[in-house]
Amino acid sequence: MARRRPSPSPPEADEPPRIIGGDLRGRRLFHRPGGPTRPMKDRVRETLFDLLGTRVKGAVAIDLFAGTGALGFEALSRGAVRAVFVERHFPTADSLRRSATGLGLADRCQVIAGDALVWPRRMPELPRDGRWVVFVSPPWKLLVDRLADLMALVAAVMAAAPSESVVVVEADQRFDPASLPEAAAWETRTVAPAVLHFFGRLVS
Which domains does the chain show, CATH number per domain? Predict the structure, then answer.
């Protein structure tokens, strides 16, 4: 009997994520194939940054559950002044530092190796010199298994963020946006397979 060949991995899971816009367009990020990260699909990321528009320029990007750092590095490429990456998986946090160095951005990046879900009780000191663009892009399983902890994190970030900041939560179709803090104040855009939720004014 012939051996059954394993199904090929999706191309985006195997290739290092690339920056898709801005000054660093086309540059690749350090990536460990087979690791625990779930990079946001290019099409979803492109739509996300189109919706954010000029809100990114001059902001501090805070990339929670950072993984490869695709969101934070994309924000830097498009004019963010600094980026803070939070990643609990230590080898992945090391990869973020390697990407920052390789892109010549080490002086504008801070990598926090730790669990963002503890922030409601113990939030670290974060840059206060300007508005934030906060990306909350967790493993979607957390939106089911640890929903209360995740929403507590979102509420804590909203409370700490300077005025004119934007918070983005990436989820899937299972997530009920009524669970969000101040649920009526959020805007939602579906970019399959993701659903993007925005707290803060968008360009469109």
Answer: 17-28+39-199 (3.40.50.150)
